[in-house]
Write a structure and sequence with these properties.
311 residues, alpha/beta
Length: 311
């Protein structure tokens, strides 16, 4: 195919493989590999081998390294679904910012005689639990406990897989103690519910990153209406700064991308500890609630032996 003179960002043929503005050019590169036109494949081969260097290259630099013309580089970018070389570099830089640990990850099998997968996961949870036990500020924990003891309505929230799961379990724990409790992981519903809170209510937010806009926004709304905001999150984050009672835990994630994150277990442990503290403090009321729940379950399924209360 003959190259035609063109500017860096001018289309010279129909786009193959997606609309302009494709989000993941690394996946697009892998998908088209081996199917590019001959000259474009030379660009693809070079890019694959020099992913982290492309951001510092001009289109002329890349063309020279690949021994192709600049229009060929533009056609390569368009084939990947980008409007031109500038957009390609931007998309690639964005992808690399979050993808390098996955692109370079090793998946070596467990060594014979070494720790099993169970041992590795359990050890990570145990190590994080020990670290959190030393990190958690007891006066802040006491403030959270006091707010929960006095609340008339408790709203848990988390955005994303781990945090939303912990928030659901938080509501499950506290409603059984006689505290009206609900959970949401919907960002729009969260903003609306936060606006209905007032003095005497508690908004309990779970976030590993502490940077979710929906959670920060909900905390600001709830604060504005006089509700108490509690969070479990990392120190120095936006959520930590806006919540009135921040329970801060610094839990660096394991570099092994295949190992499940241990932070969600730690967040759940903190919620469980608070539920236990509250239950003990209002033992007479919570014991009666738990007895009623147990009786209702027995009436429902007929089993009378020891069983968890709806876990």
């Amino acid at each position: 195919m003959q190259d035609h003179k063109t500017s860096d960002d001018v289309s010279v043929r129909p786009i193959r493989g997606g609309a302009s503005g494709t989000a993941d050019v690394i996946s697009a590169l892998q998908r088209h590999d081996g199917q590019f036109a001959t000259q474009e494949q030379r660009v693809a081969d070079y890019v694959k081998a020099h992913l982290e260097e492309i951001s510092d290259m001009t289109i002329a630099d890349l063309a020279r390294h690949c021994n192709v013309s600049k229009p060929t580089v533009v056609r390569f970018c368009r084939t990947l679904g980008c409007g031109g070389y500038r957009e390609f570099k931007l998309r690639l830089a964005q992808n690399l910012a979050v993808s390098m640990q996955y692109l370079s990850a090793s998946s070596a099998p467990l060594a014979s005689g070494g720790d099993s997968a169970f041992d590795q996961v359990f050890s990570a949870i145990h190590a994080n639990a020990v670290a959190v036990r030393e990190q958690l500020d007891q006066s802040t924990y006491a403030s959270a406990k006091s707010a929960l003891l006095q609340t008339r309505h408790l709203l848990f929230a988390g955005i994303g897989g781990g945090s939303s799961t912990v928030s659901q379990e938080g509501a499950n724990r506290f409603f059984r103690l006689g505290i009206p409790s609900v959970a949401t992981s919907d960002s729009y519903i969260l903003q609306m519910r936060a606006a209905t809170l007032r003095q005497g209510d508690v908004l309990f937010l779970i976030s590993a990153s502490g940077e979710a806009d929906a959670l920060v926004g909900a905390a600001e709304i709830a604060n504005g209406y006089g509700a108490t905001t509690i969070c479990v999150t990392a120190p120095g984050t936006r959520l930590a700064k806006v919540a009135r009672i921040p329970l801060l835990v610094d839990l660096p994630e394991d570099q092994n991308i295949h190992k499940p994150t241990a932070s969600r277990y730690i967040h759940l442990m903190i919620v469980d500890a608070l539920a236990f503290s509250v239950a003990q403090e209002m033992a007479q009321e919570t014991t009666e609630n738990l007895r009623r729940i147990r009786a209702s379950l027995t009436a429902y399924h007929g089993r009378t032996g020891p069983q968890p209360l709806g876990d």
